[in-house]
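Risk mitigation, structural track. In case the binding assays with 2,5-dideoxy-2,5-imino-D-mannitol fail to produce interpretable data, a predicted complex structure has been prepared as a fallback.
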Amino acid sequence: MAISSIFLLATFSFIYGNAVLPIEATHHVYRNLQSLTSDSSNQPYRTAYHFQPPKNWINDPNGPMRYKGLYHLFYQYNPKGAVWGNIVWAHSISKDLINWTPLDHAIFPSQPSDINGCWSGSATILPGGKPVILYTGIDPMKNQVQNLAYPKNMSDPLLREWVKSPKNPLMAPTIANKINSSSFRDPTTAWLGKDGYWRVIIGSKRNTRGMAILYKSKDFVNWVQAKHALLSAQGTGMWECPDFYPVLNKRPFSIGIDTSMNGDDVMHVLKVSLDDTKHDHYLVGRYNIANDIFVPYIGFEDNQFVLRYDYGKYYASKTTFDDGKNRRILFGWVNESSSVADDINKGWSGIHAIPRAIWLHNSGKQLVQWPIQEIESLRVNPVNFPTKVLKGGELLQVPGVTAAQADVEISFEVNEFEKAEVLKSWTNPQILCGKKGAAVKGGLGPFGLLVFASKGLEEYTAVFFRIFSYQHKYLVLMCSDQSRSSLHKDNDMTTYGTFVDVDPLHEKLSLRSLIDHSVVESFGTEGRACITSRVYPTLAINDKAQLYAFNNGTANVKITRLSAWSMKKARIN
Ligand code: DQQ
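Fallback model:
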């Protein structure tokens, strides 16, 4: 089918084991709230293989860790409804990071230092294998303070019960430390220096200066604020959910390393979730642990070049080192793009992205992310296309997959570079994607995938590349255009986009999309750029959804690989 007509048609111990601190048991488990199930009929937007609870509100992933061979994931959860509030740490476990079993809530308000909420935090595995959790509590005065919890029974691999330190809070805003009491939250996994000091950073801000406040401790209980923050940046606002970890800067780059590792072959990553923009930004740089100075290659002064994990909807993420498979895994929250009224109506809000392996690209300049390999165990009924030229204006249906629940990989080779559109001046890529959506004919592109497409293309979400000629080079734009994703216009349908650091003269342009009813997670050029979109089609739902490859440029492109799979449902909570 010619794409032009289609587009027209659609208008388209602690250390504690040794020290002897008394412990206070958590005393109330809300068992009744764990047994809720939701009616999944008439729920076209519920996902089949993304992490979500049976009902209600979910936000940040908390304290992911591997313990005694099991993965633990905690998350911010409202047991009482589909909007944020009444926050506890819900808890699930998994053997494969795909199928998850819910347990009783792990951490919930039970002492003054968290009586108004148990907010985000992280797990640290102490030498000897003891897991501990630092998390933010909201105290009776609504101050944000940092608390410690640890397992009641270390021999329980499920880590079902958590006790809280009677010394909580361990870190608190005071008049002396001048910490902003409403902007002091989300402790990271701690890392240990050779000097015997644990270090942890807490997100904060002073006026509009975002900061990662550094604390140090010898025993994980008594924490002292360091003289300076690990990093701060004027004008960035509150830094939520910081994450700080080492990545290997030599082959094999994809090997993950423990959070306390350092050395010549190691670079460090600081990720902050910017409350003002709701984006997760990261900086790659060198960390000198002797004086606790982190120097990023590109800092927030060069704002427009600060990278993001994901250029779509993806926030409050957190990594953990998986010592079972020697990899670093990234977990992130993907909020809804629907109205609060719609969320309340469907009875749930929020999902987590598919966990991603994350490592330093061999350029040393950016990270690479790729869905953990375990997700491939859900693939069934593969559909493989032979190499094929996709002519300018052509649309190619990918039949034989459950297009609302699929995994698809496609690679393009491009040649007719003289047809690339000229970009006169640098433009914000998201705005460029908004102006030049999939329906806007180009030269070299747009080409890519139409997912969640309805039969007559009244609805579709387009994930694509468009190549520009810019200052004697070629600039590759990757977009996720959801402007026509739904006939129901009450959703946030912002088009997302980013430039990708790839040389199209010498490299193929690959795209992988994980499609799951109301989410599409796309990985461009083997994970160098990611875009996650939430969409709510009204026609392209369940077995009515279709999948296409498309080319709406004048230049032909060659599809060198096109493989798609239907995805089985995972057992989630
Ligand atoms: N969510 C938590 C906070 C964190 C925010 C509260 C980020 O601790 O700063 O639910 O989404």
